[in-house]
Amino acid sequence: MNPRPSSTRHWRKPSRSSGGGGSNCVEVSAQKEVVSIRDSKISTGQFPYLAVGPEAWQAFVDSLKAT
């Protein structure tokens, strides 16, 4: 897994993050081989983010939908 630098990705916020100013959520950048997740309060420059495989991300999303 070799994700692109965070500054060259297209980050998006979940549609339900608009409440409370939308600052308490995560942003996601999905690519073919990796899904990257970052804190939306820190959205510029090179900073830590979590990178997982697409299968792990889908399992996470499915578990949220099941609750």
Automatic annotation (TrEMBL):
Pfam families assigned to the protein according to its UniProt record, in alphabetical order: DUF397
Domain DUF397: 10-65
Chain residue ranges for the region called Disordered: 1-25
Source domain of life: Bacteria
Family matches, as InterPro entries: DUF397 (IPR007278)
Protein name: Uncharacterized protein DUF397
Species classification: Bacteria, Bacillati, Actinomycetota, Actinomycetes, Glycomycetales
